[in-house]
Protein backbone atom coordinates (compact mmCIF):
# COMPACT_ATOMS: atom_id res chain seq x y z
CA UNK A 1 0.00 0.00 0.00
CA UNK A 2 1.07 3.49 -0.62
CA UNK A 3 0.50 4.44 3.01
CA UNK A 4 2.63 1.69 4.37
CA UNK A 5 5.65 2.80 2.40
CA UNK A 6 5.57 6.07 4.28
CA UNK A 7 4.89 8.26 1.30
CA UNK A 8 2.54 11.19 1.53
CA UNK A 9 -0.88 9.88 2.36
CA UNK A 10 -3.45 10.52 -0.30
CA UNK A 11 -6.68 12.19 0.79
CA UNK A 12 -9.03 9.62 2.23
CA UNK A 13 -12.77 9.36 2.25
CA UNK A 14 -14.14 7.51 5.26
CA UNK A 15 -17.59 6.99 6.60
CA UNK A 16 -18.10 7.73 10.27
CA UNK A 17 -21.11 6.60 12.24
CA UNK A 18 -22.09 7.46 15.78
CA UNK A 19 -24.62 5.63 17.92
CA UNK A 20 -25.88 4.84 21.38
CA UNK A 21 -26.13 8.50 22.30
CA UNK A 22 -22.73 9.55 20.94
CA UNK A 23 -24.52 11.22 18.02
CA UNK A 24 -25.85 13.86 20.37
CA UNK A 25 -22.40 15.38 20.53
CA UNK A 26 -22.49 15.73 16.75
CA UNK A 27 -25.75 17.63 16.41
CA UNK A 28 -27.67 14.38 16.44
CA UNK A 29 -26.31 13.35 13.03
CA UNK A 30 -25.50 9.66 12.97
CA UNK A 31 -23.66 9.28 9.68
CA UNK A 32 -20.91 11.47 8.34
CA UNK A 33 -19.07 10.94 5.07
CA UNK A 34 -15.85 12.84 5.54
CA UNK A 35 -12.81 13.57 3.44
CA UNK A 36 -9.58 13.60 5.35
CA UNK A 37 -7.04 16.04 3.96
CA UNK A 38 -3.49 15.31 2.89
CA UNK A 39 -0.96 15.01 5.65
CA UNK A 40 2.67 13.92 5.80
CA UNK A 41 2.05 10.83 7.91
CA UNK A 42 -0.41 8.10 7.07
CA UNK A 43 -3.80 8.53 8.70
CA UNK A 44 -4.37 6.30 11.68
CA UNK A 45 -7.17 6.23 14.22
CA UNK A 46 -5.19 8.41 16.60
CA UNK A 47 -5.08 11.17 13.99
CA UNK A 48 -8.69 10.58 13.11
CA UNK A 49 -9.76 11.18 16.70
CA UNK A 50 -7.86 14.46 16.81
CA UNK A 51 -9.41 15.45 13.52
CA UNK A 52 -12.90 14.55 14.76
CA UNK A 53 -12.35 16.53 17.92
CA UNK A 54 -11.29 19.59 15.95
CA UNK A 55 -13.72 19.39 13.06
CA UNK A 56 -16.83 17.41 13.90
CA UNK A 57 -17.46 17.56 17.63
CA UNK A 58 -20.00 20.20 18.50
CA UNK A 59 -19.91 20.14 22.30
CA UNK A 60 -18.45 18.55 25.40
CA UNK A 61 -15.34 16.97 23.81
CA UNK A 62 -14.46 15.32 27.12
CA UNK A 63 -17.50 13.10 26.73
CA UNK A 64 -16.08 11.63 23.56
CA UNK A 65 -12.30 11.86 23.67
CA UNK A 66 -10.23 11.35 26.77
CA UNK A 67 -6.47 11.53 26.51
CA UNK A 68 -5.60 10.48 22.99
CA UNK A 69 -8.21 7.72 22.88
CA UNK A 70 -11.99 7.55 23.01
CA UNK A 71 -13.72 7.73 26.35
CA UNK A 72 -13.88 4.33 28.04
CA UNK A 73 -17.29 2.86 27.39
CA UNK A 74 -17.43 3.94 23.76
CA UNK A 75 -16.94 1.05 21.39
CA UNK A 76 -15.20 1.45 18.05
CA UNK A 77 -15.83 -0.78 15.08
CA UNK A 78 -13.71 -0.55 11.95
CA UNK A 79 -15.31 -2.19 8.95
CA UNK A 80 -17.64 -4.13 11.25
CA UNK A 81 -14.83 -5.50 13.41
CA UNK A 82 -13.81 -4.53 16.92
CA UNK A 83 -10.96 -2.05 16.71
CA UNK A 84 -9.05 -4.03 19.31
CA UNK A 85 -8.56 -6.63 16.61
CA UNK A 86 -7.35 -4.02 14.15
CA UNK A 87 -4.61 -2.52 16.29
CA UNK A 88 -6.57 0.11 18.23
CA UNK A 89 -5.20 3.60 17.75
CA UNK A 90 -2.46 2.49 15.39
CA UNK A 91 -4.73 1.10 12.70
CA UNK A 92 -3.98 2.79 9.41
CA UNK A 93 -7.10 4.01 7.75
CA UNK A 94 -7.75 2.99 4.16
CA UNK A 95 -9.89 4.76 1.66
CA UNK A 96 -13.64 4.02 2.06
CA UNK A 97 -13.22 2.62 5.57
CA UNK A 98 -16.30 2.52 7.75
CA UNK A 99 -15.70 3.53 11.36
CA UNK A 100 -18.48 3.23 13.92
CA UNK A 101 -18.51 4.70 17.42
CA UNK A 102 -21.17 3.36 19.78
CA UNK A 103 -21.58 4.51 23.34
CA UNK A 104 -22.43 1.83 25.87
CA UNK A 105 -22.79 4.37 28.63
CA UNK A 106 -26.09 4.91 30.32
CA UNK A 107 -27.85 7.89 28.82
CA UNK A 108 -25.27 8.20 26.08
CA UNK B 1 -30.07 -18.42 31.16
CA UNK B 2 -33.82 -18.89 31.24
CA UNK B 3 -33.55 -22.58 30.60
CA UNK B 4 -31.01 -23.01 33.33
CA UNK B 5 -33.12 -21.33 35.94
CA UNK B 6 -36.41 -22.92 34.90
CA UNK B 7 -38.61 -20.32 36.42
CA UNK B 8 -41.02 -19.56 33.61
CA UNK B 9 -43.85 -21.95 33.04
CA UNK B 10 -45.27 -22.81 29.63
CA UNK B 11 -48.06 -20.50 28.60
CA UNK B 12 -47.25 -17.98 31.28
CA UNK B 13 -47.59 -14.32 30.49
CA UNK B 14 -44.32 -12.48 30.74
CA UNK B 15 -43.87 -8.75 30.49
CA UNK B 16 -40.73 -7.48 28.80
CA UNK B 17 -39.64 -4.08 30.02
CA UNK B 18 -38.47 -2.30 26.89
CA UNK B 19 -36.67 1.01 26.99
CA UNK B 20 -35.39 1.24 23.44
CA UNK B 21 -31.85 0.85 24.66
CA UNK B 22 -29.47 -1.79 23.37
CA UNK B 23 -29.98 -4.42 26.06
CA UNK B 24 -33.74 -4.46 26.13
CA UNK B 25 -33.84 -4.35 22.33
CA UNK B 26 -31.66 -7.39 22.03
CA UNK B 27 -33.67 -9.08 24.77
CA UNK B 28 -36.77 -8.53 22.66
CA UNK B 29 -35.02 -9.95 19.62
CA UNK B 30 -33.84 -12.99 21.51
CA UNK B 31 -37.30 -13.69 22.86
CA UNK B 32 -38.64 -13.42 19.32
CA UNK B 33 -36.05 -15.88 18.11
CA UNK B 34 -36.62 -18.14 21.09
CA UNK B 35 -40.29 -18.39 20.28
CA UNK B 36 -39.53 -19.41 16.72
CA UNK B 37 -36.91 -21.96 17.57
CA UNK B 38 -37.20 -25.71 17.04
CA UNK B 39 -39.21 -27.60 19.62
CA UNK B 40 -36.47 -28.66 22.01
CA UNK B 41 -35.23 -25.21 22.90
CA UNK B 42 -38.33 -23.25 22.19
CA UNK B 43 -39.47 -20.67 24.68
CA UNK B 44 -43.07 -21.30 25.53
CA UNK B 45 -44.31 -18.24 27.31
CA UNK B 46 -46.55 -15.46 26.07
CA UNK B 47 -44.63 -12.20 25.97
CA UNK B 48 -45.99 -8.71 26.22
CA UNK B 49 -44.00 -5.50 26.14
CA UNK B 50 -44.09 -2.39 28.23
CA UNK B 51 -42.48 0.89 27.33
CA UNK B 52 -42.43 3.74 29.82
CA UNK B 53 -42.03 7.24 28.48
CA UNK B 54 -40.02 9.28 30.93
CA UNK B 55 -39.75 12.36 28.80
CA UNK B 56 -41.43 14.59 31.34
CA UNK B 57 -38.69 14.02 33.85
CA UNK B 58 -35.88 14.61 31.44
CA UNK B 59 -37.26 17.90 30.23
CA UNK B 60 -38.24 16.82 26.75
CA UNK B 61 -40.94 18.53 24.81
CA UNK B 62 -44.15 16.82 23.87
CA UNK B 63 -43.20 16.79 20.21
CA UNK B 64 -39.99 14.97 20.96
CA UNK B 65 -41.80 12.54 23.17
CA UNK B 66 -44.42 11.87 20.57
CA UNK B 67 -41.72 11.22 18.01
CA UNK B 68 -40.00 8.74 20.29
CA UNK B 69 -43.29 7.06 21.09
CA UNK B 70 -44.00 6.66 17.43
CA UNK B 71 -40.60 5.06 16.84
CA UNK B 72 -41.12 2.75 19.78
CA UNK B 73 -44.57 1.84 18.61
CA UNK B 74 -43.23 0.94 15.19
CA UNK B 75 -40.72 -1.45 16.72
CA UNK B 76 -43.24 -2.94 19.10
CA UNK B 77 -45.79 -3.41 16.36
CA UNK B 78 -43.19 -5.14 14.24
CA UNK B 79 -42.55 -7.55 17.09
CA UNK B 80 -46.14 -8.74 16.94
CA UNK B 81 -46.51 -8.97 20.70
CA UNK B 82 -49.14 -7.10 22.69
CA UNK B 83 -47.65 -3.95 24.08
CA UNK B 84 -48.36 -1.20 26.59
CA UNK B 85 -47.09 2.34 26.21
CA UNK B 86 -47.20 4.07 29.54
CA UNK B 87 -46.31 7.59 30.57
CA UNK B 88 -44.49 8.23 33.76
CA UNK B 89 -47.17 10.78 34.62
CA UNK B 90 -49.58 7.94 35.16
CA UNK B 91 -47.70 7.01 38.29
CA UNK B 92 -49.92 9.47 40.12
CA UNK B 93 -52.99 7.53 39.13
CA UNK B 94 -51.72 4.33 40.58
CA UNK B 95 -53.92 2.71 43.17
CA UNK B 96 -52.60 1.98 46.62
CA UNK B 97 -52.48 -1.68 45.87
CA UNK B 98 -49.22 -1.30 43.97
CA UNK B 99 -47.46 -1.11 47.26
CA UNK B 100 -48.95 -4.30 48.53
CA UNK B 101 -46.79 -7.27 48.12
CA UNK B 102 -49.28 -10.03 47.53
CA UNK B 103 -48.26 -13.61 47.57
CA UNK B 104 -51.29 -15.54 46.52
CA UNK B 105 -49.17 -18.33 45.16
CA UNK B 106 -46.34 -18.91 47.59
CA UNK B 107 -43.29 -20.16 45.77
CA UNK B 108 -42.49 -23.50 47.22
CA UNK B 109 -38.85 -24.25 46.82
CA UNK B 110 -39.25 -27.91 47.61
CA UNK B 111 -41.30 -28.53 44.48
CA UNK B 112 -39.58 -29.80 41.41
CA UNK B 113 -39.99 -27.88 38.21
CA UNK B 114 -42.48 -30.38 36.84
CA UNK B 115 -44.72 -30.15 39.87
CA UNK B 116 -44.50 -26.42 39.74
CA UNK B 117 -45.57 -26.43 36.12
CA UNK B 118 -48.48 -28.69 36.95
CA UNK B 119 -49.44 -26.40 39.81
CA UNK B 120 -49.24 -23.45 37.55
CA UNK B 121 -51.43 -24.91 34.84
CA UNK B 122 -54.01 -25.92 37.40
CA UNK B 123 -53.96 -22.44 38.87
CA UNK B 124 -54.35 -20.93 35.43
CA UNK B 125 -57.33 -23.04 34.57
CA UNK B 126 -59.00 -21.91 37.75
CA UNK B 127 -58.26 -18.33 36.88
CA UNK B 128 -59.61 -18.70 33.40
CA UNK B 129 -62.84 -20.05 34.77
CA UNK B 130 -63.11 -17.15 37.11
CA UNK B 131 -62.31 -14.68 34.40
CA UNK B 132 -64.96 -16.16 32.17
CA UNK B 133 -67.57 -15.50 34.79
CA UNK B 134 -66.48 -12.16 36.07
CA UNK B 135 -67.04 -8.96 34.20
CA UNK B 136 -65.85 -6.90 37.07
CA UNK B 137 -65.02 -3.27 37.19
CA UNK B 138 -61.34 -4.07 37.21
CA UNK B 139 -61.48 -5.81 33.88
CA UNK B 140 -63.14 -2.86 32.28
CA UNK B 141 -60.64 -0.53 33.87
CA UNK B 142 -57.81 -2.60 32.55
CA UNK B 143 -59.29 -2.32 29.10
CA UNK B 144 -59.82 1.38 29.04
CA UNK B 145 -56.75 2.73 30.74
CA UNK B 146 -53.20 1.54 30.24
CA UNK B 147 -53.84 0.10 26.82
CA UNK B 148 -51.07 0.65 24.37
CA UNK B 149 -53.09 1.64 21.36
CA UNK B 150 -54.61 4.77 22.82
CA UNK B 151 -51.37 6.44 23.76
CA UNK B 152 -51.76 9.31 21.34
CA UNK B 153 -54.98 10.40 22.89
CA UNK B 154 -53.49 10.06 26.29
CA UNK B 155 -50.49 12.13 25.34
CA UNK B 156 -52.85 14.71 23.92
CA UNK B 157 -54.76 14.62 27.14
CA UNK B 158 -51.58 15.17 29.04
CA UNK B 159 -50.84 18.02 26.75
CA UNK B 160 -54.11 19.85 26.94
CA UNK B 161 -56.43 20.19 29.81
CA UNK B 162 -57.49 17.53 32.19
CA UNK B 163 -54.16 16.03 33.11
CA UNK B 164 -51.72 18.91 33.13
CA UNK B 165 -51.72 18.60 36.87
CA UNK B 166 -49.95 15.30 36.87
CA UNK B 167 -47.48 16.49 34.29
CA UNK B 168 -46.48 19.56 36.24
CA UNK B 169 -46.70 17.60 39.44
CA UNK B 170 -44.18 15.16 38.15
CA UNK B 171 -41.75 17.72 36.88
CA UNK B 172 -42.10 19.64 40.14
CA UNK B 173 -41.47 16.51 42.10
CA UNK B 174 -38.26 15.92 40.23
CA UNK B 175 -37.44 19.58 40.30
CA UNK B 176 -37.63 19.42 44.05
CA UNK B 177 -34.89 16.84 44.16
CA UNK B 178 -31.51 18.45 44.04
CA UNK B 179 -28.99 15.79 43.20
CA UNK B 180 -29.00 13.66 40.12
CA UNK B 181 -28.34 10.63 42.29
CA UNK B 182 -31.60 11.00 44.14
CA UNK B 183 -33.42 11.78 40.92
CA UNK B 184 -32.25 8.58 39.34
CA UNK B 185 -33.23 6.58 42.38
CA UNK B 186 -36.65 8.19 42.47
CA UNK B 187 -37.17 7.59 38.78
CA UNK B 188 -36.23 3.98 39.16
CA UNK B 189 -38.67 3.51 42.00
CA UNK B 190 -41.55 5.12 40.16
CA UNK B 191 -40.75 3.15 37.04
CA UNK B 192 -40.84 -0.10 38.97
CA UNK B 193 -44.20 0.82 40.48
CA UNK B 194 -45.64 1.48 37.04
CA UNK B 195 -44.31 -1.74 35.59
CA UNK B 196 -45.71 -3.67 38.54
CA UNK B 197 -49.06 -2.04 38.14
CA UNK B 198 -49.31 -2.80 34.45
CA UNK B 199 -48.15 -6.36 35.04
CA UNK B 200 -50.80 -6.94 37.70
CA UNK B 201 -53.57 -5.31 35.71
CA UNK B 202 -52.90 -7.42 32.70
CA UNK B 203 -52.20 -10.68 34.41
CA UNK B 204 -48.48 -10.97 33.80
CA UNK B 205 -46.72 -12.91 36.49
CA UNK B 206 -43.13 -12.35 35.43
CA UNK B 207 -41.34 -9.23 34.32
CA UNK B 208 -38.10 -9.36 32.38
CA UNK B 209 -35.80 -6.39 32.57
CA UNK B 210 -32.81 -5.79 30.37
CA UNK B 211 -29.92 -5.42 32.75
CA UNK B 212 -26.66 -6.37 31.11
CA UNK B 213 -23.66 -7.70 32.97
CA UNK B 214 -22.10 -4.27 32.83
CA UNK B 215 -25.24 -2.62 34.13
CA UNK B 216 -25.56 -5.16 36.91
CA UNK B 217 -21.98 -4.51 37.98
CA UNK B 218 -22.51 -0.78 37.95
CA UNK B 219 -25.72 -1.18 39.91
CA UNK B 220 -23.99 -3.40 42.42
CA UNK B 221 -21.35 -0.83 43.27
CA UNK B 222 -23.77 2.08 43.04
CA UNK B 223 -26.22 0.52 45.43
CA UNK B 224 -23.42 -0.26 47.79
CA UNK B 225 -22.55 3.43 47.79
CA UNK B 226 -26.17 4.42 48.22
CA UNK B 227 -26.60 2.44 51.39
CA UNK B 228 -28.63 -0.29 49.77
CA UNK B 229 -26.11 -3.00 50.50
CA UNK B 230 -28.68 -5.11 52.28
CA UNK B 231 -30.69 -5.54 49.10
CA UNK B 232 -27.87 -6.16 46.65
CA UNK B 233 -28.99 -9.68 45.99
CA UNK B 234 -32.51 -8.54 45.18
CA UNK B 235 -31.50 -5.53 43.17
CA UNK B 236 -28.99 -7.34 41.02
CA UNK B 237 -29.79 -11.04 41.21
CA UNK B 238 -31.29 -13.11 38.43
CA UNK B 239 -34.72 -13.23 39.98
CA UNK B 240 -36.21 -10.77 42.38
CA UNK B 241 -39.14 -12.03 44.39
CA UNK B 242 -39.69 -9.07 46.67
CA UNK B 243 -43.05 -8.24 45.13
CA UNK B 244 -44.53 -11.60 45.99
CA UNK B 245 -46.86 -12.24 43.11
CA UNK B 246 -44.65 -10.78 40.41
CA UNK B 247 -41.18 -12.02 39.80
CA UNK B 248 -38.64 -9.72 38.20
CA UNK B 249 -36.10 -11.53 36.05
CA UNK B 250 -32.85 -10.31 34.57
CA UNK B 251 -32.21 -12.69 31.73
CA UNK B 252 -29.57 -10.54 30.07
CA UNK B 253 -27.31 -10.30 33.07
CA UNK B 254 -24.64 -12.60 31.70
CA UNK B 255 -23.93 -10.59 28.58
CA UNK B 256 -21.60 -7.62 28.82
CA UNK B 257 -22.73 -4.42 27.13
CA UNK B 258 -20.08 -4.78 24.48
CA UNK B 259 -21.34 -8.14 23.30
CA UNK B 260 -24.87 -6.85 23.23
CA UNK B 261 -23.97 -3.84 21.16
CA UNK B 262 -22.02 -5.93 18.70
CA UNK B 263 -24.94 -8.34 18.48
CA UNK B 264 -27.32 -5.48 17.79
CA UNK B 265 -25.00 -3.98 15.24
CA UNK B 266 -24.29 -7.17 13.36
CA UNK B 267 -27.88 -8.43 13.37
CA UNK B 268 -29.41 -5.08 12.67
CA UNK B 269 -31.49 -4.94 15.83
CA UNK B 270 -33.20 -1.57 15.90
CA UNK B 271 -32.59 0.49 19.00
CA UNK B 272 -33.93 3.86 19.94
CA UNK B 273 -31.84 6.31 21.79
CA UNK B 274 -33.77 8.46 24.22
CA UNK B 275 -31.88 11.01 26.24
CA UNK B 276 -32.19 10.29 29.92
CA UNK B 277 -31.49 12.11 33.12
CA UNK B 278 -27.75 11.66 32.88
CA UNK B 279 -27.36 12.48 29.23
CA UNK B 280 -24.49 14.84 28.51
CA UNK B 281 -23.85 15.21 32.21
CA UNK B 282 -20.28 15.01 33.34
CA UNK B 283 -19.13 11.75 34.83
CA UNK B 284 -19.17 13.24 38.30
CA UNK B 285 -22.77 14.40 38.19
CA UNK B 286 -24.21 11.45 40.09
CA UNK B 287 -23.01 8.39 41.91
CA UNK B 288 -24.41 6.26 39.11
CA UNK B 289 -22.39 8.05 36.46
CA UNK B 290 -19.30 8.14 38.59
CA UNK B 291 -19.36 4.41 39.24
CA UNK B 292 -20.07 3.73 35.61
CA UNK B 293 -17.12 5.73 34.37
CA UNK B 294 -14.94 4.23 37.10
CA UNK B 295 -15.79 0.72 35.99
CA UNK B 296 -15.41 1.54 32.32
CA UNK B 297 -12.01 3.08 32.85
CA UNK B 298 -10.86 0.17 34.92
CA UNK B 299 -12.29 -2.23 32.36
CA UNK B 300 -10.33 -0.64 29.54
CA UNK B 301 -7.10 -1.42 31.32
CA UNK B 302 -8.08 -4.59 33.16
CA UNK B 303 -10.48 -6.35 30.84
CA UNK B 304 -11.88 -8.69 33.49
CA UNK B 305 -13.07 -5.93 35.83
CA UNK B 306 -16.75 -6.10 35.00
CA UNK B 307 -16.93 -9.86 35.07
CA UNK B 308 -15.09 -9.97 38.38
CA UNK B 309 -17.53 -7.55 39.95
CA UNK B 310 -20.39 -9.47 38.44
CA UNK B 311 -19.14 -12.84 39.68
CA UNK B 312 -18.62 -11.44 43.14
CA UNK B 313 -22.13 -10.09 43.16
CA UNK B 314 -23.50 -13.38 41.97
CA UNK B 315 -22.36 -15.04 45.18
CA UNK B 316 -24.76 -12.90 47.18
CA UNK B 317 -28.11 -14.41 47.89
CA UNK B 318 -31.19 -12.90 49.39
CA UNK B 319 -31.06 -13.39 53.12
CA UNK B 320 -33.74 -15.91 53.98
CA UNK B 321 -35.31 -13.90 56.71
CA UNK B 322 -38.65 -15.22 55.53
CA UNK B 323 -37.93 -18.43 57.40
CA UNK B 324 -39.86 -17.13 60.36
CA UNK B 325 -42.72 -15.87 58.21
CA UNK B 326 -44.99 -18.42 59.80
CA UNK B 327 -45.86 -15.58 62.13
CA UNK B 328 -48.97 -13.91 60.70
CA UNK B 329 -47.52 -10.41 60.81
CA UNK B 330 -46.21 -9.49 57.40
CA UNK B 331 -42.53 -8.55 57.42
CA UNK B 332 -42.13 -4.80 57.39
CA UNK B 333 -41.31 -3.51 53.95
CA UNK B 334 -39.87 -0.33 52.63
CA UNK B 335 -42.60 1.83 51.22
CA UNK B 336 -40.74 2.72 48.06
CA UNK B 337 -38.57 -0.17 47.04
CA UNK B 338 -40.59 -2.88 48.80
CA UNK B 339 -37.52 -4.50 50.27
CA UNK B 340 -37.75 -5.88 53.76
CA UNK B 341 -36.75 -3.08 56.08
CA UNK B 342 -33.12 -3.07 57.07
CA UNK B 343 -33.55 -0.43 59.72
CA UNK B 344 -34.72 -2.54 62.64
CA UNK B 345 -31.23 -3.62 63.50
CA UNK B 346 -29.70 -4.11 66.91
CA UNK B 347 -27.80 -1.48 68.83
CA UNK B 348 -24.31 -0.73 67.75
CA UNK B 349 -24.98 -0.67 64.04
CA UNK B 350 -23.71 2.26 62.04
CA UNK B 351 -27.29 3.31 61.33
CA UNK B 352 -28.00 3.63 65.03
CA UNK B 353 -24.91 5.68 65.65
CA UNK B 354 -25.70 7.87 62.69
CA UNK B 355 -29.18 8.55 63.98
CA UNK B 356 -27.76 9.30 67.38
CA UNK B 357 -25.28 11.80 66.06
CA UNK B 358 -28.03 13.38 63.99
CA UNK B 359 -30.06 13.75 67.14
CA UNK B 360 -27.21 15.19 69.12
CA UNK B 361 -26.13 17.77 66.62
CA UNK B 362 -29.08 18.75 64.48
CA UNK B 363 -27.93 20.54 61.40
CA UNK B 364 -28.61 24.23 61.67
CA UNK B 365 -31.17 25.26 59.10
CA UNK B 366 -29.03 28.22 58.15
CA UNK B 367 -26.61 25.89 56.47
CA UNK B 368 -29.24 24.94 53.95
CA UNK B 369 -29.86 28.47 52.87
CA UNK B 370 -26.28 29.49 52.62
CA UNK B 371 -25.50 26.57 50.37
CA UNK B 372 -27.46 28.15 47.61
CA UNK B 373 -26.12 31.58 48.35
CA UNK B 374 -29.53 32.95 49.07
CA UNK B 375 -29.30 34.54 52.51
CA UNK B 376 -32.73 35.93 52.68
CA UNK B 377 -34.31 37.13 55.84
CA UNK B 378 -36.83 34.72 57.19
CA UNK B 379 -35.40 31.70 55.54
CA UNK B 380 -33.72 30.48 58.65
CA UNK B 381 -36.53 31.40 60.94
CA UNK B 382 -38.86 28.85 59.59
CA UNK B 383 -38.70 25.50 61.29
CA UNK B 384 -37.49 22.71 59.10
CA UNK B 385 -40.25 20.72 57.53
CA UNK B 386 -40.19 17.60 59.58
CA UNK B 387 -43.88 16.98 59.84
CA UNK B 388 -44.19 14.66 56.91
CA UNK B 389 -40.67 13.37 56.88
CA UNK B 390 -40.84 12.07 60.40
CA UNK B 391 -44.03 10.31 59.45
CA UNK B 392 -42.58 8.86 56.33
CA UNK B 393 -39.01 7.97 57.21
CA UNK B 394 -39.66 5.08 59.60
CA UNK B 395 -41.48 3.32 56.79
CA UNK B 396 -38.51 3.41 54.46
CA UNK B 397 -35.33 1.45 54.16
CA UNK B 398 -32.05 3.23 54.67
CA UNK B 399 -31.35 3.81 50.98
CA UNK B 400 -34.78 5.24 50.28
CA UNK B 401 -34.56 7.41 53.37
CA UNK B 402 -31.62 9.20 51.85
CA UNK B 403 -33.56 9.88 48.66
CA UNK B 404 -36.64 11.08 50.46
CA UNK B 405 -34.65 13.15 52.91
CA UNK B 406 -33.27 15.09 50.04
CA UNK B 407 -36.70 15.52 48.56
CA UNK B 408 -37.98 16.81 51.85
CA UNK B 409 -35.08 19.07 52.71
CA UNK B 410 -35.04 20.74 49.34
CA UNK B 411 -38.73 21.18 49.57
CA UNK B 412 -38.24 22.85 52.92
CA UNK B 413 -35.63 25.08 51.42
CA UNK B 414 -37.80 26.06 48.52
CA UNK B 415 -40.55 26.92 50.95
CA UNK B 416 -38.27 28.91 53.09
CA UNK B 417 -36.55 31.04 50.54
CA UNK B 418 -39.84 32.19 49.06
CA UNK B 419 -38.48 32.91 45.65
CA UNK B 420 -40.28 35.03 43.10
CA UNK B 421 -43.26 32.95 42.02
CA UNK B 422 -44.43 32.11 45.48
CA UNK B 423 -47.37 30.17 44.20
CA UNK B 424 -45.15 27.86 42.24
CA UNK B 425 -43.11 27.10 45.30
CA UNK B 426 -46.18 26.41 47.29
CA UNK B 427 -47.21 24.04 44.57
CA UNK B 428 -43.91 22.22 44.83
CA UNK B 429 -44.35 21.78 48.52
CA UNK B 430 -47.91 20.74 48.32
CA UNK B 431 -47.35 18.32 45.51
CA UNK B 432 -44.47 16.57 47.13
CA UNK B 433 -46.28 16.60 50.40
CA UNK B 434 -49.31 15.17 48.71
CA UNK B 435 -47.14 12.59 47.19
CA UNK B 436 -45.53 11.75 50.46
CA UNK B 437 -48.79 11.79 52.33
CA UNK B 438 -50.41 9.71 49.68
CA UNK B 439 -47.72 7.17 50.18
CA UNK B 440 -48.17 7.29 53.92
CA UNK B 441 -51.88 6.84 53.50
CA UNK B 442 -51.26 4.00 51.16
CA UNK B 443 -48.93 2.37 53.56
CA UNK B 444 -51.42 2.78 56.35
CA UNK B 445 -54.15 1.26 54.27
CA UNK B 446 -51.71 -1.44 53.36
CA UNK B 447 -51.00 -2.11 56.99
CA UNK B 448 -54.63 -2.19 57.96
CA UNK B 449 -55.23 -4.41 54.97
CA UNK B 450 -52.63 -6.92 56.01
CA UNK B 451 -53.76 -6.77 59.60
CA UNK B 452 -57.31 -7.46 58.57
CA UNK B 453 -56.12 -10.27 56.40
CA UNK B 454 -54.26 -11.91 59.21
CA UNK B 455 -57.21 -11.36 61.54
CA UNK B 456 -59.56 -13.10 59.15
CA UNK B 457 -57.01 -15.84 58.77
CA UNK B 458 -56.98 -16.31 62.48
CA UNK B 459 -60.77 -16.31 62.52
CA UNK B 460 -60.90 -19.08 59.99
CA UNK B 461 -58.66 -21.19 62.10
From TrEMBL, chain A:
Keywords: Cytoplasm, Isopeptide bond, tRNA processing, Ubl conjugation pathway. One of its GO terms (biological process) is tRNA wobble uridine modification. One of its GO terms (cellular component) is cytosol. Its main location: cytoplasm. There is a cross-link at residue 108 (Glycyl lysine isopeptide (Gly-Lys) (interchain with K-? in acceptor proteins)). Pathway: tRNA modification; 5-methoxycarbonylmethyl-2-thiouridine-tRNA biosynthesis. Belongs to the URM1 family. PANTHER family: RURM1 PROTEIN. Acts as a sulfur carrier required for 2-thiolation of mcm(5)S(2)U at tRNA wobble positions of cytosolic tRNA(Lys), tRNA(Glu) and tRNA(Gln). Serves as sulfur donor in tRNA 2-thiolation reaction by being thiocarboxylated (-COSH) at its C-terminus by MOCS3. The sulfur is then transferred to tRNA to form 2-thiolation of mcm(5)S(2)U. Also acts as a ubiquitin-like protein (UBL) that is covalently conjugated via an isopeptide bond to lysine residues of target proteins. This is Ubiquitin-related modifier 1. It comes from Python bivittatus. The gene is URM1.
Automatic annotation (TrEMBL), chain B:
GO terms for molecular function: nucleotidyltransferase activity; sulfurtransferase activity; tRNA binding. InterPro entries: CTU2, Rossmann-like_a/b/a_fold. The keyword Oxidoreductase does not apply. GO terms for cellular component: cytosol. Keywords: Cytoplasm, tRNA processing. It comes from the Eukaryota. Belongs to the CTU2/NCS2 family. GO terms for biological process: protein urmylation; tRNA wobble position uridine thiolation. It is found in: Cytoplasm. The keyword Nucleotide-binding does not apply. Coiled coil: none annotated. Plays a central role in 2-thiolation of mcm(5)S(2)U at tRNA wobble positions of tRNA(Lys), tRNA(Glu) and tRNA(Gln). May act by forming a heterodimer with CTU1/ATPBD3 that ligates sulfur from thiocarboxylated URM1 onto the uridine of tRNAs at wobble position. Pathway: tRNA modification; 5-methoxycarbonylmethyl-2-thiouridine-tRNA biosynthesis. Pfam families: CTU2. This is Cytoplasmic tRNA 2-thiolation protein 2.
Amino acid sequence: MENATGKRAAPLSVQLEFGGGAELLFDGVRKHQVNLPNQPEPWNVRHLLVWIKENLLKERPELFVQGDSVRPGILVLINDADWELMGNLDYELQDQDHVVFISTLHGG
Amino acid sequence: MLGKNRCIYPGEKVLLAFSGGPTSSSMLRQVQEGLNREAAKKLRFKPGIIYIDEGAVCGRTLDEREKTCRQVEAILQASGFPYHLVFLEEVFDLPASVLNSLSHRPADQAHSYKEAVADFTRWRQQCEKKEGAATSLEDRLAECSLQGCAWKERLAVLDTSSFPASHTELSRLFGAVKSLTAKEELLQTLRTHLILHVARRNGYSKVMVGDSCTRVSVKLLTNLCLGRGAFLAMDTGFSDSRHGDILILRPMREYPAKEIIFYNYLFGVPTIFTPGLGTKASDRASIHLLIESFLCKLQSEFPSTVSTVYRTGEKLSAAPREVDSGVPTAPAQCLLCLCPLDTNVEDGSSLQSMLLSEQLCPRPPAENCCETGRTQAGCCGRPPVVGDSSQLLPLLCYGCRLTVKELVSVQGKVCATRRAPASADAKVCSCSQDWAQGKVARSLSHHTFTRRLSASDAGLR
